[in-house]
Design brief:
Layout lengths: L7 E5 L2 H7 L11 E3 L4 E7 L7 E8 L5 E5 L10 E7 L2 E7 L7 E10 L5 E13 L14 H9 L2 E8 L2 E8 L7 H10 L2 H5 L1 H7 L3 H12 L8 E3 L18 H9 L5 E4 L1 H15 L3 E11 L6 E7 L12 E13 L10 E5 L6 E2 L2 E2 L4 E2 H6 L8 H9 L1 E7 L5 E7 L5 E6 L6 E3 L1 H4 L6 H13 L13 E7 L8 E9 L5 E12 L5 E14 L4 E8 L1 H4 L8 E10 L6 E7 L7 E5 L8 E8 L10 E6 L3 E7 L9 E8 L5 E10 L6 E9 L3
Parallel strand pairs: 2-9, 12-13, 15-21
Antiparallel strand pairs: 1-3, 3-7, 4-5, 4-8, 6-7, 8-9, 10-11, 14-16, 14-23, 16-17, 17-20, 18-19, 21-22, 23-24, 25-26, 26-29, 27-28, 27-30, 30-31, 32-33, 33-36, 34-35, 34-37, 37-38
């Protein structure tokens, strides 16, 4: 039988079998998606039994085939692609082995049939497949040894992002949706639109084997500053030409809008939205990632590891060209990987911050920075360690700027920054506090040693310690439900043996969660006398009608007190932030939920305000359930009245799913609700 008559009839990529083995079936079952460092099999059907001929495989990577890889017939080194053959009549089963450090992305496979003399007899048109990182592979630098961690940090399409204030923590459900239709393709599209890819695509392509490089690119591309990134940030109303940041409930809609608009940035986002997007993209690519929230998060603009907060004599913040600030909370992400580019001891969780705050190598991004390096004060490691260290461990120094320009230091706080650092637990929907992964206990000797070590690294002196006084001021409050009046109690305690005559100044203002001032709510100065060993209480009430002018989403009320006691050289200061709690939406699921069958849910809430609501809109979405869908409320919702809506949907994927609901109106915004569904096959 002549080998010249043999032809390649077809190539079967065995997508369902391979995708199931590689845990990518959630992404797609109709096209091949595999993970590096793990073998997969394809079948080649020939016109007749193969005798005297050879099959060859070539891989083409890149839009213009910038990288071509010849797949070897035996393993020569750990970085080689290679394959084995098994024959059954005129069918050949090929098992391909990818290296654990292979380039991720779309590949095209060419199967070539050649004779003994090397002459090409037939070539099958190239077939596409995708390669992802592999957290199950011990040789992959993103390897995670704990299956529970992988299920949470790679496979979970739903999560919780924490918000609020350090003493009133709230949470927001987020639909990461990394396995929704076309999301993987959009993730690779994001890489293709990066500045690095546009500048030198082949060089960029070759570096996509490295999750340190890829995560750094993603961190830059999630925001749109100085590139063709996903999302434009905006921290103040109005959002009329886009969507308010607090109205997003997931990443999928943002990613699709960006892709459909040919890489025009979507409007608008803030830190939790940037964080949610980064989690989606990195998990989709196979990098274990989790959202992190840091309360009382420092933004150190001058890199001296301390925040200098300047106040004038009217207790108004003095803004300089680049002012330090403290955010109520700030969200970033952590990704798990080995750091082969750093000395030992820097593997594990790496901080990545996609919110555009400071430049890193000329681009608005931050990280990856090892969490271990932050805890030990090692600021010389890549990337952006001083900035991350300050976010969780800076000292805060308050200054009074007198009318003559003289500055007086009035307060130094060594334990204000980096509180209750939070992420979702792998064991359910509860919060896990990971503060001690970032720093030693506040007030401990080790914590101060690390801080002093970090200060020496940047050659800056430590701030003076706060002097002790016999007059102490504290601010207390109950939780504030949006629609009720706010009430705060200022307690001035005289611990001395003589009566204290005090000038007490109070200033309440509305501000965004990242300290942008929106407006003054109250301001007054009064003279008080506090007897020895007694407590004086001042009640500050802020009516709903006053704060509603400024507060609708993640804004808050900030109360600053400044008192000057006779015989005390420095003013005494206390600050409190109070964020209103929004009402919850009730979501009920009607009956048993089965895949590809019509299902329904009921959504309702009662208007808690004393005014009617107009222009009400529910937005509903859920990974594997339905794309972002709007349900309009007809007419106005009277005070105390309940509004309800019913929505039909058809689940596309089985398993435990989350349905997320947002409500928006003229008087109530940032209202959320959710329900957990178990979608069955039958």
């Amino acid at each position: 039988m002549s080998y010249c008559n043999v032809n390649i009839l077809s190539v079967d990529m065995r997508c369902r079998e391979n995708n199931s083995a590689h845990r990518t079936w959630e992404i797609d079952l109709e096209r091949l998606i595999v993970r590096r460092g793990q073998s997969f099999s394809i079948s080649v059907l020939l016109s007749q039994r193969l005798r005297g001929c050879n099959l060859g495989l070539d891989l083409h990577v890149g839009k213009r085939e910038e990288v071509v890889i010849s797949v070897k017939k035996e393993k020569c080194s750990a970085s080689d692609w290679w394959f084995t053959e098994r024959y059954a009549c005129n069918e050949v089963l090929l098992t391909l082995y990818s290296p654990a450090d292979a380039i991720i992305g779309p590949y095209r496979l060419a199967v070539t049939l050649s004779g003994p003399d090397g002459r090409v007899l037939d070539t099958k048109a190239m077939t596409k497949f995708h390669l992802l990182y592999n957290p199950w592979c011990k040789d992959d630098v993103v390897y995670l040894p704990d299956e529970n961690w992988i299920q949470e940090y790679v496979m979970n399409e739903n999560g919780i992002i924490y918000m609020g204030t350090w003493n009133n923590i709230t949470s927001r459900r987020w639909n990461f949706g990394q396995f929704e239709d076309n999301i993987m393709d959009i993730c690779f599209e994001i890489l293709d639109y990066s500045n690095e890819a546009l500048r030198d695509f082949k060089k960029d392509l070759c570096q996509r084997a490295d999750p340190v490089y890829v995560s750094r690119i993603i961190t830059a591309m999630v925001n749109c500053n100085r590139d063709r990134g996903l999302l434009e940030g905006c921290w103040e109303e109005p959002y009329t030409d886009g969507k308010a940041p607090y109205r997003w409930t997931g990443s999928v809609d943002i990613l699709r809008r960006w892709s459909e608009s040919c890489a025009k940035p979507v409007k608008y986002g803030q830190c939790w939205v940037f964080s949610g997007l980064a989690v989606t993209v990195l998990r989709c690519l196979g990098i274990p990632t989790r959202p992190i929230t840091n309360y009382e998060s420092a933004h150190d603009t001058d890199g001296n590891l301390s925040l200098d907060i300047l106040l004038n004599e009217n207790m108004e913040v003095v803004k300089e060209r680049r002012s330090d600030s403290t955010w109520n909370f700030h969200c970033w992400v952590e990704s798990w990987m080995r750091r082969l580019d750093l000395p030992q001891g820097n593997d594990g969780w790496q901080v990545l911050d996609p919110t555009p705050q400071e430049l890193s190598d000329g681009t608005f991004r931050c990280g990856p920075c090892p969490v271990r390096a932050i805890k030990e004060g090692n600021l010389d490691v890549k990337y952006d360690a001083p900035f991350v260290f300050a976010e969780v461990n800076a000292d805060v120094i308050h200054w009074i700027v007198r009318k003559n320009g003289e500055r007086q230091k009035i307060k130094v706080c060594e334990d204000c920054i980096g509180r209750n650092i939070s992420t979702k637990s792998i064991f359910g929907n509860r919060r896990e506090d990971i503060t001690l992964q970032y720093k030693y206990p506040e007030g401990s000797k080790k914590e101060r040693e690390v801080y002093e070590k970090a200060k020496r690294a940047i050659r800056d002196e430590s701030p003076d310690r706060q002097e002790q006084t016999q007059v102490v001021v504290n601010i207390k409050h109950e939780k504030l439900v949006f629609g009720a009046d706010a009430e705060l109690v200022v307690e001035v305690t005289n611990q001395g043996q003589k009566t204290a005559d005090i000038s007490l100044s109070l200033a309440a203002e509305a501000q965004t969660y990242n300290c942008i001032r929106l407006g003054v709510l109250q301001k007054e100065t009064k003279q008080i006398s506090v007897q020895a060993n007694q407590v004086h209480k001042e009640v500050v009430r802020v009516p709903y009608k006053d704060y509603v002018k400024y507060i609708s989403g993640q804004q808050n009320i900030k109360l600053t007190t400044l008192l000057q006691a006779q015989g005390v050289t420095k003013p005494i200061m206390a600050v409190c932030k109070l964020a209103p709690i929004m009402p919850k939406i009730k979501v009920d699921i009607d009956g048993k939920i089965c895949r590809r069958r019509r299902s329904s849910c009921s959504i309702s809430f009662t208007n808690p305000l004393k005014v009617p609501l107009r222009g009400g809109v529910f937005t509903v979405e859920g990974a594997g359930l339905l794309a972002s869908t709007k349900v309009k409320v007809n007419g106005e919702i009277a005070p105390g009245h309940q509004v309800s809506a019913k929505l039909n949907f058809q689940p596309m994927r089985c398993g435990i799913r989350k349905l997320l609901v947002d409500f928006f109106s003229d008087g109530l915004r940032d209202m959320k609700g959710n329900a957990t569904l178990n979608v069955r096959k039958f």
